[in-house]
Amino acid sequence: MERQFEAGLAFAQKKDQQDHMNKIRERFCIQPETIYMDGNSLGMASKDAREALMKVVDLWETEGINIWNIEDNKYFLYQDFLGARLAELINARPDEVTVMTNTTINIHQGISTFYHPTKERYKILVDDINFPTDRYAVDSQVKLKGYEPAEAVKVVASRDGVIDEERVIEAMTDDVALVLLPAVLYRSAQLLDMKRLTEAAHKRNIIIGFDLCHSIGAVDHDFADIQPDFAVWCNYKYLSASPGAIAGFYINQKHFAMEPGLAGWQGNRKDTQFQLKQKHEHAQNAGGWQTGTQPLFSMAPLEGVLKIFEEVGMANIRKKSLDITAYFMYLIDTKLAQYGYSVGNPREDERRGGHICLVHEEAYRICSALKDSGVVPDFREPNVIRLAPIALYTSYEEVYQVVEILEFIAINKKYEKYSSERSMVV
């Protein structure tokens, strides 16, 4: 898509005046003298999320155990209520999505459900640059089946930090039982062609699942078209549902009759759940993959912030996200390239997620300098500054200001006063 940008501050301010999401920004807790660029790690708090959380706190106080029965059992069925609303963000059926546990446990749930190795088909196919928790879960699952990761985990090597989809498809050989891949790479923001990969896997009778942690809420996925077997994601990044918020889980309706790999009483059919039978009767929907009692305080902020997503619409969010990140790349090329900065993410709209991968050999120390200058970024080894202009609450003027600060840091070598020793959380 051809876009026309200009380098001056006046252009950024004009873009903000034309931005229909400006009023939405007011519903987030913008901090004074701070430019928040880390919404791809932890989304900014919203007033809607806080209001929803405090409502549940108040209900616990006044209703006690009756909280499960009020409002037509809303909170006992909260996972179905929230799952149906999340499904709209990825164009899935309401009963194909639920919320539960965390991303890693949901990966375990997906793999343990679908991974039933045989002598001929026993490998799990992964890439070598996905977020490590996915690989940890995969290795654990193959060990539980009596294999060593070296023999049962098939790793497709990346090229220059990019997953080569052609190589992934070539690796879908007859011994592969399951594929697990990211939708968007956490480091480089590469967006995979999920439909192509899913069709290739299914053509070979291979199960395929995706990790949407770095795409949900930024990319308008169409699961009615893609039709993967399962997917997992966290809800605390672009979706801003609170630190460590409950995670999301999708399972394609064609698998509803399968036995969950990890069974628990909350996954039981609701009409027989309180009969407390010793035999699990799992619900024939995504809720059948639930395990323990749902944590309402972890779920409530998601209800609040989803109001905002529903009002704005994922298509509009994606449109602005692509435009503001393209503007960011334009300013990097125009103002920062001469100081050793470069863009490390794909540039094509259809190949990138919602954050900028800014590369510099002094990335870690520049991150420290940014923090002291009122900018909140994050760092990824060995040389990446991740900057996420979030469509709902980041302004074009803030993007311009960040570029000005990055230029000042480079010209004055302000980063040199900071240590290169890594802190615990970066």
From TrEMBL:
InterPro entries: Kynureninase (IPR010111), PyrdxlP-dep_Trfase (IPR015424), PyrdxlP-dep_Trfase_major (IPR015421), PyrdxlP-dep_Trfase_small (IPR015422). Pyridoxal 5'-phosphate binds at residues 103-104, 131-134, 211, 214, 236, 265, 293. It comes from the Bacteria. It catalyses: L-kynurenine + H2O = anthranilate + L-alanine + H(+); 3-hydroxy-L-kynurenine + H2O = 3-hydroxyanthranilate + L-alanine + H(+). Its cofactor is pyridoxal 5'-phosphate. Keywords: Hydrolase, Pyridine nucleotide biosynthesis, Pyridoxal phosphate. GO terms for molecular function: kynureninase activity; pyridoxal phosphate binding. GO terms for cellular component: cytoplasm. It holds the Pfam family KYNU_C. Its EC number is 3.7.1.3. GO terms for biological process: anthranilate metabolic process; L-kynurenine catabolic process; L-tryptophan catabolic process to kynurenine; NAD+ biosynthetic process; quinolinate biosynthetic process. It is an enzyme of class 3 (hydrolase). Pathway: Amino-acid degradation; L-kynurenine degradation; L-alanine and anthranilate from L-kynurenine: step 1/1; Cofactor biosynthesis; NAD(+) biosynthesis; quinolinate from L-kynurenine: step 2/3. The modification N6-(pyridoxal phosphate)lysine is found at residue 237. PANTHER family: KYNURENINASE. Belongs to the kynureninase family. Homodimer. NCBIfam families: kynureninase. Catalyzes the cleavage of L-kynurenine (L-Kyn) and L-3-hydroxykynurenine (L-3OHKyn) into anthranilic acid (AA) and 3-hydroxyanthranilic acid (3-OHAA), respectively. This is Kynureninase. The gene is kynU.
